[in-house]
């Protein structure tokens, strides 16, 4: 088992989806959803980090699943794919550190993208 590189070809997120959401559900709702994502992402990433350090593989899987769902709620496709890979490999402690490092890196890229969406596209 190991890390697939498929996520590298994915966009960070789906701006068209978020704009469509704003058009159909309202700008305020879209802004609220996107603005809640960074805290949710950061929380679950912290839980995953703590679970890896504690060698609690069930908690790694559970937190990865929660983070994946949060990613999909705002169409953060690249991070969702990396987290899905982490979830799939949660029982393999040998690959978790490298996968988690990728989660952190793509997580930072995603948080920057979400900030830009809020500042420019959903303003």
UniProtKB/TrEMBL annotation:
<dbReference type="InterPro" id="IPR036641">
    <property type="entry name" value="HPT_dom_sf"/>
</dbReference>
<dbReference type="Pfam" id="PF01627">
    <property type="entry name" value="Hpt"/>
</dbReference>
<keyword id="KW-0597">Phosphoprotein</keyword>
<feature type="modified residue" description="Phosphohistidine">
    <location>
        <position position="65"/>
    </location>
</feature>
<feature type="domain" description="HPt">
    <location>
        <begin position="26"/>
        <end position="113"/>
    </location>
</feature>
<keyword id="KW-0902">Two-component regulatory system</keyword>
<dbReference type="InterPro" id="IPR008207">
    <property type="entry name" value="Sig_transdc_His_kin_Hpt_dom"/>
</dbReference>
<protein>
    <recommendedName>
        <fullName>HPt domain-containing protein</fullName>
    </recommendedName>
</protein>
């Amino acid at each position: 088992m190991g890390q697939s590189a498929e996520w590298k070809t994915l966009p960070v997120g789906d701006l068209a989806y978020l704009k469509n959401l704003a058009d159909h559900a309202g700008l305020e709702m879209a802004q609220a959803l996107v603005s809640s994502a960074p805290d949710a992402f950061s929380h679950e990433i912290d839980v995953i980090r703590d679970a890896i350090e504690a060698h609690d593989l069930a908690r790694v899987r559970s937190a990865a699943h929660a983070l994946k769902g949060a990613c999909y709620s705002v169409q953060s496709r690249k991070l969702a794919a990396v987290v899905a890979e982490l979830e799939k490999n949660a029982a393999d402690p040998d690959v978790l550190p490298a996968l988690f490092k990728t989660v952190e890196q793509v997580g930072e890229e995603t948080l920057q993208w979400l900030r830009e969406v809020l500042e420019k596209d959903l303003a």
